[in-house]
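Here's what a typical entry looks like (Amidase):
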Amino acid sequence: MKDTTRRNLLKVGAAGISGMAALSGRAAAQETDMTGISPGTISSAEKLLGVEYTDAEREQMVSALEDQLSAIQQLRAVDKPNTLAPAQTFDPRLPGLDYPAAKASSATTASITPQTGLPSDSADIAFAPLTKLAGWIRSGDLTSRQLTDIYLDRIEQLDPKLHAWIAVMPERARAEADAMDAELAVGNDRGPLHGIPYGLKDLFDAVGARTTWGAKPYSEREMAAADSTVVRRLKDAGAVLLGKTSCGALAYGDIWYGAVTRNPFDPREGSSGSSAGSASAVAAGLCGFAIGTETLGSLVSPSHRCGGSALRPTFGRVSRAGGMALCWSLDKVGPMARSVGDLGHVLAAINGYDADDAGSLQSSFGFQPTTDFSGMKIGFDDAWLEAAGDVEKAAFLEARRLGATFVRFKLPELPSAPLPQQLLAEAAAAFEELTLSNRDDDMVWQEDPAWPNSFRAIRFVSAIDLIQVDRLRRLWMQAMHEAFEGIDLVIGPNFSSGMLTPTNFTGHPSLVMRAGFQDTRPRSIFGQPQDETAATARTPIAISMWAPLFQENTLLSFGAALEDALGVAGERPSL
C-alpha cells in the first residue's frame, strides 16, 4: 500500500492497535496500579494485540505481567532528557558496501564571484539568491549590515500576516553582520555564506532566544546557554542569524502555540509543516536562506506549499546536536532556499561528523555543480503520470530534454504503511512526560492526527511489533539499494510516488523544488480544500528527486539545471 499524504502516514501510525492495554495507558502522577490484573484483563487486551490465548495461558501470564509493570515503573522513574539518545542508533549504510563519497576527501566548494548592478529596490535585493547576495557583498555594493536591516524591516512589515518567526534576534543579527563586514574589509572571506542572513527553525538552540519547539508546554523554557552545532557551523561560515522561525508544535504541522504559519502565496492557508516558518520566510523574502528539518515530510511539504527548494541530506550527514529530538533514527537537518544552487553552499557549511550526535556519520561534501548529464541515468515510473498534474508532467518532460537517459524505476514491492509506527513510538518516548503528566492537554492542536492522540495510541503497540517494523526497515534498505543500482537519481511526484516514506526510513537524500504554479483554493494542512466556494489563488507546485546515499551533488546539479530550464523559481508572492 502506498500512502499519498502525511496525514495518511501518521494516521496509520496513530490508529495502530497492537499491544497490551495492561502494559500501558495514561497514568495520573506517573503511577500505575500494579494489582488487579486478571485473566479477564488479559482477555480484553488481546483485542488490541490481535492475538488470542487460552484460559490456562492467561492464568499463567498474570504474575509475569505484574513483574513487567513493576519494571516499567522503575523505568519511568529514570530521568531521560530529550538529548538522551537510544543505545541503538540507525546507520543507513548497508554492511559490506563501499560509499566513496562518505570517505574523507579534499572536496572543494564552488566559489562566489563579485557582482555589480545592485538593484535600487530593496525587495529585489531581498529575493535574490544567496549567490547574488554574496556577489554584491564581495563587490562592496552591499554590506551584510545593510542586507540584515533589509530583512529585519521586511520581517517587521510582513510577519504579522505570515507568523513565520517565533523570535527575531535583531541585536545578535546586527552584531554578527557588523563583524562580517569588518572581516571582509581586511580580506578575511569565510566563503559563500559570509554575511548572508538566515532563519533557524525553532528546534535548535541559539544564544539570545528560547528554544520553544513550537509547543505551548515548552514556550517558557530558559534562554539557550549555547549554540547548537548547526548554528556554530553557520557562524564559522560567516552566516548571520536573524532569529528563530516557527515550526509546528514538536515538529508536526504549521500550528504552533502563537498562531498558524501562513503560505505567502495565499495567506488564507497554512504553510503546511513542520518547517513551516522556514519555508514561509524563504518564499516571502524574509531571509537569504533557512534551516529546516525532516522526519517524515517536514522539508518537502512546506516547500511544496510555499514554493521554495529544500534538500533533505543523507541521514547522519548534518549534526542534530543542540536540537530537539523527535525521532532519533529519522530526524534530518537540511537547508531551504529560493534557488536549488544555494542549497549546495549551505550544505557544504553544515555538513560534517559531530561526536555530540549519536547518529552522525563521517561524510565529506563539496558543492561541485556539473552541467553535462549525457552519461546520467534517471529513474522514472511511467505509472506516476496517472496521478501527476499538468505542472508535474511539464516538469518531467523538461527534465527529459536535459540530456540524461531515462530508465525504468520501480519502487520495491514492500509495505510502507507499518514504517511510521517506529516514528510514532520514538516520538512518544521522547515526550512521554507530556502524556503521563496530562500536559499534552496544553498543546494547541488536539485533533485526531495531532501528537496528543498519536502519543496515547502508539503506547498500545507491542515491543515485538516494533522490532518487526525495524526488520522491515532493513528489508527496505536492501531493496532500495537494489532499486537504485545503475541509477543516478529518480524524479517523481512528491507524495503520490510513494517515495516519501521509504526513503525517509532508508536515509536517502531528496531534493524538492518548485516546478510551476496552479490555481488552488485554500487547503488544510494535509492538502484538502477547506472551502469549495472560496476564490482560487495562484500557488506553487513542486516535484521531488531522490538519489543514492551521499549523492547530494548529483541532485543539486541536475535540480539547478532543471530549475533554469523551467524558469519559474523567481516568481514572488504579492504580499
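Residues 1-32 have pLDDT under 50 and may be disordered.

More examples are in the samples folder.
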